[in-house]
Amino acid sequence: MRNSLQTLGRIKKFELDELQRRLATELEQETSLEKQRRSLIADYEQEKEFAQQNPGIGDFGAYTDLYLKRRRVLEDNLTEVRQRIEALRDKMAEVYKDRKTYEIVDDNRQKRRRKEIDAREQKMLDEIGTSAYIKKHQE
Question: CB–CB of 60/51 below 8 Å?
Answer without folding.
Answer: yes
